[in-house]
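Retro notes, structure queue

What went well: the backlog is down to a handful. What didn't: a couple of records were mislabeled last round, so from now on we paste the full input next to the output in the thread. Example, using 5-formyltetrahydrofolate cyclo-ligase from Oxobacter pfennigii:
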Amino acid sequence: MKKELRSRIIKERQKISREDVLKKSLEIKNKLFNIPEFINAKRVMFFVSYKNEVDTIDMIDEAMKLGKEIIVPIVVPGEKDLLLSKLNSMNELEESSYGILEPPKKYIRPVSAEEIDFVVAPGVAFDENGFRMGYGGGYYDRLLSKISKSCKVAAIAFEMQIVPEVPTEPHDMRIGMIITEDRIISPNI
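Corresponding output:
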């Protein structure tokens, strides 16, 4: 059931035009950048968008200009884990073997998950109860289990990624806020 839902949502998301991705991403960015917890956060972790995900490139760039310390994830091959690194410039990103923009070794500045104030999380599908379905590797479930209790987590997604119910497993963590181009979903957690 999870596999079929994941596949269906990814296929539907791939049909969104680049123009619409950018337009909807701007609407999502405007909501995110007006959230008090985001405004007050000093260290913000962003995923670097890939394919037809909500575009985070402008968000990262603008957050840097606002003086926020930006943290990005790096996939650790074979370990099903994410290394977190401080990003000083968008020019430090290069395409990895996974096709994802990440800092190469010379630009890696490790940061622990406990040091982050705000996480902007990706996902494939979400429901209004805050359940998130990722790409199936468990990377973000593991990461979110390591952050401090005071760290705010907001997932960003297109409205078409919101489904009636995400199939869950006991280890699945709920997200406290989901931001789409149409609304902000704040489940009672």
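Agreed that this is the format going forward. Reviewer comment attached to the example: The chain has five helices and eleven strands.
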